[in-house]
């Protein structure tokens, strides 16, 4: 097993156990068979996922001297509920059919409606149910976080950051919607969305929560590590996501090939391609990007533009530079050595992943 | 001013001030003009609303001996953020165009998209933005509740009830979606949805939170009052809502005439009508209920069936009985006299309202 895999796998089991325990505590509220489908949908959805955010939180905790504390696994695992909520709502907003190799939540409920031959629009029922399922996971995430069992003093210091993370997440998602709608994304604006939409919330904030929970204070070095390591790994993570959304293998990503192209995502990758595209290449992007009917040939033509303009190589170069800078900052931080090794491995795992 | 109006108005100003203070604390995060529209949409939406849930919470607090405590107004006002979130998501799920006499949140964002001539579907942008705005209000509701400034011991006792209220709210909304989709609502199943969807969350839980925050314990008499007064006022409140959704005056409700009929809502009122309808009357309901194009003539024909089957009178009778029982239970409870008077007036206001 590689070091990257170990840094994730070591906490995967812990997180899974904590999620199962939390969901089991909710189960008595879902004994009505009509409601049981909500709980099963949550469980099936949560079975997937890389547990990346819990891992950053866990290793942040360890980095600041946190020891073997059962409460931490609940606090960390709560971030996986938040991520599940965000993905379920995201798929409604993007009208995505597939997630983690399965039908997206709204499609799952749409199918239940269609198979039962119920009244009204199956699409509307699917979307409404998925909005509610996402809400349930959102409120559960807060409940699980608060009830972790960690010391009240630790939670009190971290809570304002947790609150702000949620506001920032919703704002970042809105900026992303806006960026796709305005369609005028420059390289800079796309990079800003990458940071706000995912970078901060996927890496910086989980890491910060772990650090602050253990330190019970927000030291200057914590801020420095969160910005210099956290934000840079976060952006690189999102850039990798952008690349996988165009070039990823469906068997590994669990999403159709070129899905981001069909959805018209205005990513850093696309902005970089347009910045050095010939008029003919620009026309290809203008004509094909965001076409919901885009076929394999269209995906191939857009991929060619992204490669030929040098955008793919440029993004790979950016990922490498952000990663190098992050690892350098990590080397300077006054943290526990075992956590330093694990956070280095996590940074590599998050930015070189294929799924 | 009537006693009912006074019991609401006396806390309306307090709640408005608390909401303004909370939103002002969020303002620095919304200095980016792209994000400022989210905050204005929240402010405009919150300007409406009857502050009914905060009122039940406030008078619950006073009933259990709570004094003049600034923190309570924040805890109570947080329920208005929750209600705003639920309505915004509800309107997306029901595809409702109008709320509180203004375009619903998703229509507001849809219009921004259309007027700017942005890319992609204006409908999808509107719905996505409204989902995120609802999420923002949902997380803010929790944040405002926790940061009320009330004694940590009081919050600790009430928190599990607050958590459960949120789970129950999402489940109730899902049961409502299901009820409309299955379309087989019996009188009993419609009554159950009325209790779960709105009854508990509109009256019982806000009241319970106020009582428990003041008592810092969950006494048997609190439970009794919450069930015997809270649930009964809650169901009567929802029955009034059902009647207003069919017979309400658009100038007062802020929603188009017969809106619930067009949306095909399977309410207690409809279930009661179907239970004693002739085959011809049943055919009218089957043909017209849920027709999105339903015109004034169709609304009139459905209203006639509801009146002629005796369903309207039956529902009015139920409201009266629930109210009488609730007031009787209120009379037995060991609570402060001023709060008893106010809760009696509130029960009347909630069940005889015209908006």
Strand and helix map with partners:
The structure is a homodimer of 355-residue chains.
Chain A (H helix, E strand, L loop, with lengths): L2 H24 L6 H15 L4 H12 L6 H25 L3 E2 L2 E2 L1 H12 L5 H25 L5 H31 L4 H29 L4 H28 L2 H4 L5 H4 L5 H8 L3 H10 L7 H13 L2 H22 L4 H16 L3
Antiparallel strand pairs in A: 1-2
Helix pairs in contact in A: 1-2, 1-3, 1-4, 1-16, 3-4, 3-8, 3-16, 4-6, 5-6, 7-8, 8-9, 8-12, 9-15, 9-16, 12-15, 13-14, 15-16
What's the short story on this structure?
2 copies of one chain form a homodimer. Chain A is mostly helical and 355 residues long.
Largest inter-chain interface? A-B, 52 and 53 residues
Query: How far apart, in Å, are the first and last alpha carbons of chain A?
Result: 17 Å
> How many separate domains make up the residues of chain A?
1
What does the radius of gyration of chain A come to?
Answer: 21 Å
State the fourth-level CATH superfamily of chain A: Farnesyl Diphosphate Synthase
CATH topology label of chain A: Farnesyl Diphosphate Synthase
- Describe the biggest sheet of chain A? 2 strands, antiparallel
Beta fraction of chain A: under 5%
Give the strand order of the largest sheet of chain A, numbering strands 1, 2, ... along the chain.
1-2
The total of helices of chain A stands at 16
Q: Count of DSSP E strands of chain A?
A: 2
Query: Uncertain segments of chain A of ≥5 residues (pLDDT<50)?
Result: none
- The percent of residues in helical segments of chain A reads over 70%
* CATH C-level label of chain A: Mainly Alpha
- Principal-axes shape call of chain A: globular
């Amino acid at each position: 097993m590689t070091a990257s895999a170990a840094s994730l796998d070591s906490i995967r089991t812990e997180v899974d156990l904590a999620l199962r325990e939390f969901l089991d505590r909710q189960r008595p509220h879902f004994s009505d068979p009509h409601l049981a489908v909500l709980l099963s949908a949550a469980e099936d959805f949560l079975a997937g996922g890389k547990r990346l955010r819990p891992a950053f939180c866990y290793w942040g905790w360890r980095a600041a001297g946190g020891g073997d504390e059962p409460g931490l696994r609940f606090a960390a695992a709560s971030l996986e509920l938040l991520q599940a909520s965000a993905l379920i709502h995201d798929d409604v907003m993007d009208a995505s059919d597939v997630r983690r190799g399965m039908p997206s939540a709204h499609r799952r409920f749409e199918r239940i409606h269609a198979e039962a031959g119920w009244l009204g629009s199956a699409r509307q029922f699917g979307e409404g149910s998925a909005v509610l399922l996402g809400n349930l996971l959102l409120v559960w995430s807060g409940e699980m976080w608060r009830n972790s069992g960690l010391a009240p003093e630790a939670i009190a210091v971290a809570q304002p950051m947790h609150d702000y993370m949620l506001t920032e997440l919703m704002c970042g998602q809105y900026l992303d919607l806006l960026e796709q709608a305005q369609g005028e994304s420059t390289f800079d604006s796309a990079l800003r969305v990458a940071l706000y939409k995912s970078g901060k919330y996927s890496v910086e904030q989980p890491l910060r929560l772990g650090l602050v929970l253990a330190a019970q204070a927000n030291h200057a070095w914590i801020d420095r590590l969160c910005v210099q390591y956290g934000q840079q790994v976060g952006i690189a993570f999102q850039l990798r996501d952008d690349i996988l959304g165009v070039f990823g293998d469906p068997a590994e990503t669990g999403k159709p090939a070129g899905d981001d192209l069909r959805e018209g995502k205005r990513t850093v990758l696309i902005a970089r391609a347009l910045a050095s595209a010939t008029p003919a290449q620009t026309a290809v992007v203008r004509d094909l990007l965001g076409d919901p009917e885009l076929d394999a040939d269209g995906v191939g033509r857009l991929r060619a533009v992204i490669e030929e303009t040098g955008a793919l190589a440029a993004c790979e170069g950016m990922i490498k530079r952000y990663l190098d800078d992050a690892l350098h900052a990590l080397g300077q931080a006054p943290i526990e050595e075992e956590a330093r090794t694990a956070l280095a491995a996590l940074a590599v795992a998050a930015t070189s992943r294929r799924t």
